[in-house]
Amino acid sequence: MDVRSRNQVRVSGRAGAPVVMLAHGFGCDQHMWRLVVPALERDFTVVLFDHVGAGRSDLSAWSKDRYSSLDGYAEDVLEICRELALGPVTFVGHSVSAMMGVLAAARHPEYFTGLVLLAPSPCFIDDPADGYRGGFSAEDIEELLQSLDANYLGWSGAMAPVIMGNPERPELGEELTTSFCATDPDIARVFARVTFLSDNRADLPQVTVPTLVAQCSRDAIAPPEVGAFVHARIKGSELVTLNATGHCPQLSAPEETAQAIGTFAGALR
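^ thats the sequence. predicted structure below, dont judge the formating
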């Protein structure tokens, strides 16, 4: 299958410039980056794509076997890199896509000049025995997934504003709700389990490329302790706390987000 059409790959910006590859999170698509892209296009080649099952990707390419773990998504990232042959990229992964970048860079570091992990979480579930705080108890996640199974559209309408934060700007939550509701519910159920049940804490030390961990100042999905944990486990990584609030700073604070990405990626030239 053609990788470009499978993932609806789009390349823009300065030809021959360093490459920034933007990967969206659960329930979203590449459109979520639209406010960040213009600033990056001035100095970089920008690669956008949709995960299989999202946006305008080829839904016929989706299979439960391949996409029941983050491994399938990480392999897609590597296949896009090989197909485009633009040289090593700075991979920007939002939310669950951050761990896709971690897996991909651990397997083939030569494909990456660096990683930007935007509002990352290697594990959403608390692990009291290990002193790890992911932000949710196992019971919380089980309840969340049961609610999603029972009424996906209702779950989307309730959860999207919580994930987005910024209650004084309800249009942001409404946009995320619309994005969630546009996703095939059967695919969303599988992807939700991958997102909320994966545990990639042990994969973090395998990252050897320069890494920026960018967390938000207030985030109901990925609390500050999570960003600090990721930073501590990736040797030599940088940690920045954005003024942005909520879990989607590319929508709530696009200028600040673009600046953080551009400054980091520019320094890797």
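Residues 113 and 268 are 7 Å apart (CA to CA).
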